[in-house]
Amino acid sequence: MRTEKQMTDLILNIAKEDERIRAVYMNGSRTNPNARKDTYQDYDIVYVVTETDSFITDKSWIMNFGNPLIVQEPDWNDNYAGNSGEIHDFSIRYVWLILFDDGNRIDLSIEIQQEAAENFLKDKLTVLLLDKDGMLPVIAKPSDEDYYIKKPTQNNYWACCNNFWWCLNNVAKGIARDELSYVMHMFHEVVRGDLHAMLNWYIGTQYGFALSTGKAGKYFKKYLSDDLYQQYCKTYSASDYRDIWAAVFTMCDLFHILALSVAEHFGFSYRQTEENGIRKYLNRVKSDCIK
Fold first, then answer.
1. Which of 16, 105, 203, 288 is the most buried (most CB within 10 A)?
2. What are the tens digits of pLDDT across the range 114-134?
3. CATH code, 148-289
4. Which residues contact 169 (CB under 8 A, 6 or more apart)?
């Protein structure tokens, strides 16, 4: 695998030799002083260009970075697959995600100067690598403060608890109806989202809120006690409904512990009646399903 210096030199040399590329900046985990460093980190690179059309029309220039194993063009996918509902103007910005045969990955964006002027200061995890024309402003040292855990209000907290307990009824109904895909969607995408919110608030109460647990809580293990983290792991299940029921009740127990701790820290009230009601319903549906 090429080293970080080799990759950075390559990225800069390509920019220096191409008159269409006027500036280069990087963001993402490689600019984050608090992110764990490893060989799997992407290079999140933005080339500020005079125009985008020539780069998109003849994409062979990408081969200058190395031999790709696979390339994704998410803007193109959004426009033509229609799954995200987003429509992109390729004349302003375009993105390639490129995985190379040596294991390195570059998430490469090109954007015109007007777009760069708007985007450059939006992400505090930004480092300027090259500016041929002095077009971009001076910025502070990179910081992940935009991703810090936000303290909840009482209403934030109530809404999270209510949605967590309420949506579990959909998980139970899905199990009763043998609708596995619906069960997994509700449990792991909807309900788990509220669990993650509560986990973040709990971690904030333990360590302070000037930290990030990473995308999808990838640093939970770092901040949770061994017992809590093992309990969290058990909220993931196989596709067998008995396993799913076990994971559901484990998640309920974990959420209860976290929610009470967060409430105590902030002086919030906890609506135990919501939990009692859904636990009664879950037990009823489970007893109907498992004879």
1. 203
2. 898 888 878 888 899 999 999
3. 1.20.120.330
4. 278, 281, 282
